[in-house]
Design a protein that fits this description.
Layout lengths: L14 E15 L11 E13 L8 E3 L9 E12 L2 E13 L2 H15 L11 H4 L3 E5 L5 E5 L9 E10 L10
Parallel strand pairs: 2-5
Antiparallel strand pairs: 1-2, 1-3, 4-5, 4-8, 6-7
């Protein structure tokens, strides 16, 4: 007869981070109403206000390998890019990549993404896309762990990077607006 083991819950030093941001979306071209016609095109504008640890059961944007503290600057790396398809485009999409305690490590990731984004992801037939044009970059986290970052989100056939940014953020409570 097999015994059931009681599983112990391990308290890891991680935070489940939700980026507190406001996004305004503007329709820049209306749908033409045709079955296979042009679709609605949009432009989004995102303003980041802070960060919040929502726990593993909440909606989160990033998991970081440290506990968030009040009155501490963290460095959020995010990519603003355009995407689309044959029928339309959506500008100003945001992808939150990583958050660091170290400003230097964040800057290294910004530089790596910027360099990677300058290399075209789509090449004419006969070219070796994935061997010569990597769709991942490797970076170092605050804990020294090397991590691969998939760049296809902002480097596809229709995708183009507008900019890569490192933004200093603090826990959400420091960004509350007064009515």
């Amino acid at each position: 007869m097999a015994r059931k083991r009681k599983q112990e819950e391990v308290d890891l030093d991680v935070s489940y981070v939700r980026v507190e941001a406001e996004t305004q979306v503007e329709v820049v071209r209306e749908d033409d109403g045709e079955l296979y016609g042009r679709r609605e095109c949009t432009a989004a504008y995102t303003s980041i206000h802070g960060i919040k640890d929502v726990g593993k059961d909440g909606y989160y944007d990033l998991v970081v390998g440290f506990k968030l503290e009040d009155n501490v600057d963290y460095y959020l790396v995010h990519v603003n890019y355009n995407t689309g398809d044959s029928f339309g485009h959506d500008d100003g999409k945001v992808c939150y990549v990583e958050m660091f305690k170290s400003k230097e490590l964040a800057k290294q990731l910004v530089d790596a993404i910027s360099e990677n984004a300058q290399t075209p992801s789509y090449l004419p037939p006969g070219k070796k896309r994935y061997k010569e044009q990597p769709m991942t970059i490797t970076y170092e986290r605050d804990d020294g762990q090397k991590v691969d970052c998939y760049t296809g989100t902002w480097r596809g056939y229709f995708e183009r990077v507008n900019y890569v940014e490192m933004e200093a953020v603090r826990t959400e409570q420091h960004y509350r607006r007064t009515p």
